[in-house]
Design brief:
Structural class: alpha+beta
Radius of gyration: 13 Å
Shape: elongated
Length: 69
């Protein structure tokens, strides 16, 4: 019951498009949060971090889930 879920969502940033990458990350986080709450995870237990990755980074488009106790 004390566990929390941190969702880190990465989207690549291309030249001059950091705001677009951040919006995409946020949109992806909201979709993941909606899925998780639909499966019974309490919204208050989900923390989100929409992040920007480098466009040339391996797996620049990714979602990482961390369970914190």
């Amino acid at each position: 019951p004390a566990a929390r879920l941190e969702v880190r969502v990465f989207s690549p940033s291309k030249a001059h498009s950091e705001s677009a990458a951040r919006r995409l990350s946020l949109s992806r986080f909201l979709a993941v949060r909606q899925f998780l709450t639909g499966k019974g995870v309490a919204d208050a237990k989900i923390d989100g971090r929409p992040l920007i990755s480098q466009a040339n980074e391996l797996n620049a488009d990714r979602i990482e889930l961390y369970i914190e106790r």
